[in-house]
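User: Just a sanity check before I run the rest of the batch. Below are the C-alpha cells for the first item. I only need the designed sequence back.
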C-alpha cells in the first residue's frame, strides 16, 4: 500500500514515529484503547503494525482520525479507529477502514477482526455496510462509559478478505 492515498474527504497516510505528537491527543480521547505513549510509539515503528491517519486541514499539526491494525499469523486485527468528534459523519471512518481492509489484503490475511461496543450504533452500521459479520459477544467487556452505568458488551466481528 502506498504511503498516502488521496481521498475525497482527506489524505490517508501511514503514520511514522515522528507523528506521535499529533497522534497522542487523538488517541488519549479514545475510550476504547488504553494505549499509552510508549505503546503507540512502538506501534508506529513495528513492521507488523500499521497506523493510518487523516490530516485535519483545519490544523497543520492535528489529525482528524486514525486507525491501528495489527498483522496476526493468518488474520489482521483492527485495534483502534477514531475520528475527531467535529469531523464525524463525513466519511472519514469509512475511508480509514477501507485503508485497513486494503492493508489486510496486502498482507494476505484471511480475515479482518475487530470488536466494538454494543452501544456504538454508528460504528456497527458502518461495519455492517462494509460487509463485516457478527461472530460473537463478550459480555460486560467494556468498562462503563459514564459513572454508574453498567459495563458494556463487546460485539466481535470479522470480514473475510480472501
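Assistant: Here's the designed sequence for the first item:
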Amino acid at each position: 500500500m502506498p504511503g498516502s492515498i488521496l481521498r475525497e474527504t482527506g489524505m490517508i497516510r501511514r503514520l511514522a514515529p515522528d507523528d506521535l505528537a499529533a497522534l497522542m491527543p487523538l488517541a488519549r480521547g479514545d475510550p476504547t484503547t488504553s494505549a499509552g505513549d510508549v505503546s503507540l510509539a512502538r506501534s508506529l515503528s513495528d513492521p507488523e503494525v500499521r497506523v493510518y491517519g487523516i490530516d485535519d486541514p483545519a490544523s497543520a499539526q492535528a489529525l482528524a482520525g486514525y486507525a491501528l491494525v495489527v498483522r496476526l499469523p493468518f488474520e489482521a486485527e483492527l485495534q483502534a479507529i477514531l475520528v475527531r468528534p467535529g469531523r464525524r459523519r463525513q466519511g472519514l471512518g469509512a475511508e480509514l477502514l477501507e485503508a485497513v481492509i486494503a492493508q489486510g489484503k496486502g498482507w494476505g490475511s484471511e480475515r479482518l477482526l475487530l470488536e466494538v461496543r454494543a452501544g456504538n450504533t454508528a460504528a456497527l452500521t458502518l461495519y455492517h455496510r462494509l460487509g463485516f459479520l457478527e461472530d460473537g459477544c463478550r459480555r460486560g467487556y467494556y468498562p462503563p462509559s459514564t459513572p454508574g452505568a453498567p459495563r458494556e458488551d463487546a460485539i466481535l466481528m470479522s470480514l473475510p478478505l480472501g
